What does this fold into?
Amino acid sequence: MVNGGFRKLFHKGNHHRYQRLSLLNFTEISKEYGYESEEHTVITEDGYVLTLFRIPRGKNCHFTVQRTPVLIMHGLLLSSDSWIDSGPEAGLAYLISDDCYDLWAGNVRGNYYSRSHTRMNPDKDPEFWKFSLNEFGVYDLPAIIDYILDHTRSVKLNYIGYSQSSGSFVIMCSENPGYCDKVRFAIFLHPAAKMTNAKSQALRIITEACQILEPDLQNALELEALPKDGHIQKFVHDICQNDFIADKICRSILTLLDSYNPGSISVSTIRALTGHFPAGTSVRHMAWFSQVLNKEEFQNFDYGPVINMKIYGRNQPTTYNCNATTAPVVIIHGENDNIVSKKDVEWLKNQLPNVLEVVYVKNPLWNHFDVPYSQHTREMIYPKISEYLFKYSGNGVEL
It folds into this structure.
């Protein structure tokens, strides 16, 4: 059933089932496929309430679970659901847990799983939405890491960061160096840091619009960008439940944002993912991407010279110290990625002090969205992930 049954289900499709799956949450979806999962709540130092999911043991794990937990973090406008939307044969959360790792999937502030605060109301308080990637690295990742280590009684964990979550890891190590010591090693999947050479014109247009609008927005709901259950997400979800539209129009939207890789993402996955994407973030975070797309530095948010002087004590925003990322790092990238270019990946590699290996996926059409959603994840990127997880998953528990 695992190999033949799921493959038949995913490739021939089951319209009604995938329409229903697109409306379920992480624990409900994983339960559909026989995976027991847990939901955990993490509170950051500055009061944001984050939701964290755990698959403590994969359905197909027949050995002792490795003691070093694995934390996997999502990309821009995504959530932890992105790691299960492509199903048990391809979703990284399933593949990792089936290899007997204690898998944790996190969510950063502002998406639909982490749209809460101990004091502020995201619907009424504009201050809730005044964050960018900096806060993910300074507050969210440290809180999540501390929670996992405390809950599992582990000394260290292994980290997998996709796109923006590679950049937030570098920020964490730059601003909170002690947290790098809590990570055995990190895998950066298509890492987004400096992005000057990105080819995606759609990304540039969307983020530039946010950069222009952000200073004049005052209302809390205006400061939230592309939320789940917003007009755009609901419209895209509804039309993409039709197989023909999903294959032709919705696939074209992904291609417009990134690049073309025919047949990599199945129609059933497109139907499922549109229930969870876009997942929401702040307009300021989107504006930060506009800035980083036009700067030769990996730097904090640029408020303009006057406010920069008040916040940073200088006219320009502070840059992050990539050299502080002392944890061993493996980078995996695809050369058809129009969001994060090979040139910018090479730049990041040269800034990091402890890169073990840079791997370029053998499929020349492998792109940015293939990482969470491709039906070929098991063959294209998982062997290298599995290799390093096995190598760095020693006894991390204090007994």
